[in-house]
Amino acid sequence: MLHWLRLQNLHKASVQLHMTQPAASKVLSQLEQEVGYALFERSATGTVPTAYGSLMIEYARQVLHATRRIQSELSQVQYHGQRTLAIGALPSATLSVVPDLLSALLAQVPDLQVSIEDGIIEPMLEKLNVGLLDIVIGRRTELIDLSGFDRIILDYEPMVLVCGLQHPLAQIRKLDAGHLHDCTWIFPQAGTYANAKLIELCDSFGLAHPSIAIRSSTTMTNVIMLARENLVAAMPQGIARYFERQNMLHILPLEKTVNFGEVLLFTNKRLVYSPNAALIAQACTLIQQKTAFKRALSVEQENALQRPGSGPSE
């Protein structure tokens, strides 16, 4: 079916399948009789899937990827005695959520090999949809249909604006929107949800056309470029505070900030096709436990700072 979808020509598909065209046509007809629906429309110009065929093809693709994944899993167990878990995450999550998850998983599942992939959310969700990834950790997107994914809110973390220590803005204690008008920016990738939200923030500051020198979602690249050049970027507050403690960047003291959305845990609703269904569920539970603990600890620390006499001594 996938050959027919890709080629949209019964003769070409039969050649690739090492079948005669009549034999391929018979197989397709038998399949249609078995499911009770017309899966393809035949014409002189080619063979195209019907609505029923498109749905069938989607499930066929899922089964194909699951079969390949199972073969890989069996080979991994046979030769290395290990199971595998494939995680996709936004770069910021690889510095926060992912390390905690890895430590917990390696402690509880000692025969596990974990692969980590970072990048922008949309391509990773496409891989999750076809079984190439087991879990994706990232922020909400409005660019693709999310109905095929289960989503768990892990955390909400505001974004802050940052610059390098050498940037002139790092020396100003009281900033306002006017200070940002001559700045050069690092922006997220065009077309992403994060890019749209940062544009909204710039609009609120009266920056109709911000000067964008770099588009990057890679945290370490952004941190290095902020240290080298007089640039401004948006970064998750927790990550920004970490690099500020390392004396690698400066958080701009602005009351108005940008919301890139909650940090979400995405899994495929069709876990029945995943050879790692139980392991994925275990990883999801561990992530929720870790983020809940860190959230409670953060609230406790904030409350402690607000108690009388808890501030820094003179």
UniProtKB/TrEMBL annotation:
One term of GO molecular function: DNA binding
Protein name per Swiss-Prot or TrEMBL: LysR family transcriptional regulator
Domain HTH lysR-type, first and last residues per copy: 1-50
Record keywords, A-Z: DNA-binding, Transcription, Transcription regulation
Species name: Advenella kashmirensis (strain DSM 17095 / LMG 22695 / WT001)
Annotated InterPro entries: HTH-type_LysR_regulators (IPR050950), LysR_HTH_N (IPR000847), LysR_subst-bd (IPR005119), WH-like_DNA-bd_sf (IPR036388), WH_DNA-bd_sf (IPR036390)
GO CC annotations, alphabetized: cytosol
Keyword DNA-binding tagged: yes
SUPFAM superfamilies in the record: Periplasmic binding protein-like II, Winged helix' DNA-binding domain
Family: Belongs to the LysR transcriptional regulatory family.
Pfam families, per the entry: HTH_1, LysR_substrate
